């Protein structure tokens, strides 16, 4: 009798403790889906590190193929609305959660913080994300004329209203040679970066500054994201503006240099709360060795340190 009561109490305490591990939300990258073999494996590895943790993988579409497609095609603002609804209806997330964004999933989760954050994110980790956009599409191999033509076409049409409503990558394409057009017509990135004075929203800064930690992870050999420093809020500037725009498109991405986060107007004037966060020591710069999303040797320490905390609530 005593034993049964004791074990019942133990079970109660134990399950209460298990439920007070802060849950985790993942947002996959381009070309992946929310429940691909790779994502499922990642979830199970996280559960080995933090037994009992609740993990939710964000989806746009429940069907895997469609979810993968939605990473390429769709309206990011609408996708965010739907993800915010999704997260708000999951009871386990009700008291807040940590989040990990892979590649473009990272800037989408940051946008979630700025626009919704209900329930709130505690720590946000982004792997190889494009916080200052991409300023080029990966360079084609020499003599690959089809690739070069496609790349040129994409770049020329990137700020059309169609592309800005339908091509996901176009919605975070930030052309340093054409910043005015980017700011005026970009449907997503200039908004969440508060780069357009006409669309400035103070709420974004307040919400981003409410994070406990923003862990920005860059891949040292990343050749997929141009520039890779976008993962650290760096962006490219064109050093020489004397080229015509056609020549600029044809030129490989040379003659450009990187503006680091601390020199970005966005940071200096604190348009999105990033400076506030940084001055409290809450922006953490990290690297993974290797090409874009080579995380196999590089995720565990971050997951251990920044997720799975036992909550005292
Ligand atoms: C600012 O953003 C918040 C959150 O998305 C939104 O509720 C609010 O309407 C926006 N304010 C303006 C002036 O657009």
TrEMBL record:
Keywords annotated in UniProt: Disulfide bond, Glycoprotein, Hydrolase, Signal
Signal peptide residues on this chain, from the entry's feature table: 1-18
Gene3D superfamilies linked: alpha/beta hydrolase
EC number from the UniProt entry: 3.1.2.22
Name assigned to this protein: Palmitoyl-protein thioesterase 1
UniProt xrefs under InterPro entries: AB_hydrolase_fold, Palm_thioest
Family in the record: Belongs to the palmitoyl-protein thioesterase family.
Species for this entry: Lentinula raphanica
PANTHER family named among the record's database cross-references: PALMITOYL-PROTEIN THIOESTERASE 1 (PTHR11247:SF8), PALMITOYL-PROTEIN THIOESTERASE/DOLICHYLDIPHOSPHATASE 1 (PTHR11247)
GO MF entries: palmitoyl-(protein) hydrolase activity
